[in-house]
């Protein structure tokens, strides 16, 4: 229900707030560039893949991220890779990129496997006690632990409980800021700021402490020992290939916050939807279990098994098509542009809604149907990179794409090698667009212990 403030701001905001997904799907089917009026801002909803490409790739330098949504999260993310722009962003991306290449991510796979197994053990105990599990909560927990251990290694151990406590508070406050038409500065004593400030202070001091510890340790050693590199060490040691510069502490803090926030709720969300879809398609669940047994003999798949699990990858990709966690994102024009006849003026917003683009009947046959085979090698539907945007596209595509895919395959593969999962309540679940695309209620699963090995 739109608030009074939203109604007063006027334009399309009230309709878009009342039913964002329905409105974006309906408007994106009108074709071309659809004008949107959001308060005083002019927006353009772009769904045609050629125009998506124009904004995200060909004319990328004409757009930045100073939009209300990105401004709302800057209080936490600072000038990290997700929110920065221009030559500063380019440098940060260049320095960080090697840490996210497929090979580097393989290095983190044992952490993912160990934490996925721990989740499986917890599920085993629940199944033995005849208790259901809450997949949303468990996927949030495991993805937060994975990103935190990947970043900090063992150093986090003593602060882990505090991170687990403050993180949900920070995420909830960010969600409140993004969905509110006004974003008061952090010092104003609003209800949200009242909760956000102490949580953020606590997380900041943990992260700053971890950076300082790591610096001290690196100063006494010439480099990380024994190949046990955590992501923070990699980022600390990285040098810009063009200038030789390294990241300072303040910048490291912003990147660490960014990776924790960008790399955890998104993946958790996708996995919650995946468990829902596997309940709707029990035959698919059996098919995946059969694929795992053929690839591993029945044990939990490791990163080396993943090339033999193409169906599992396709199921994750199809889940990301139907329920893209980043269901909408936007850009601000720095100067005029022309989108096949539609004039874009400096300051205008260009809006992309992957949830709607992934449902365009011209791009996807029978778009509401769950069909992982769309993502089989060589299929036409997935060939246009600018029609499939769960990770966005172009130079600012998600740097954690490979990380998220490998992590998702390992978590789901590990759990499927030990359980069959069905929804405790079979009623349909619908999407709730918040910062990410949440489920309308918890995905509560009843588990059957069904080890393959
Ligand atoms: C299924 C999981 C994920 C999804 C759906 C997702 C989606 C996205 C999308 C759509 C963007 C582009 C946003 C924009 O340009 O406006 C993005 C950027 C980003 N993501 Fe992800 N992400 C996921 C997982 C991760 C993970 C695991 C990490 C890190 C460990 C990560 C780190 C980032 C960063 C740092 C950026 C900013 C990149 C830049 O602008 O250069 N993401 N993500």
Description of the structure:
This protein has helices at residues 4-9, 13-18, 20-28, 49-58, 68-77, 86-96, 102-128, 135-152, 160-179, 191-220, 231-237, 249-262, 265-280, 282-296, 310-322, 354-357, 401-416, and strands spanning 33-38, 41-46, 63-64, 133-134, 329-333, 337-339, 342-344, 349-352, 419-423, 431-433, 437-439, 444-449. The protein has 453 residues and is of the alpha+beta class. The chain has two domains: 1-64 and 327-372, Uridine Diphospho-n-acetylenolpyruvylglucosamine Reductase, domain 2; 65-326 and 390-449, Cytochrome p450. Protoporphyrin IX containing FE binds next to helix 12, helix 13 and helix 17.
List keywords for this structure.
globular; Cytochrome p450; alpha+beta; binds protoporphyrin IX containing FE; Uridine Diphospho-n-acetylenolpyruvylglucosamine Reductase, domain 2; three-stranded antiparallel sheet; 453 residues; 17 helices; five-stranded mixed sheet; 2 domains
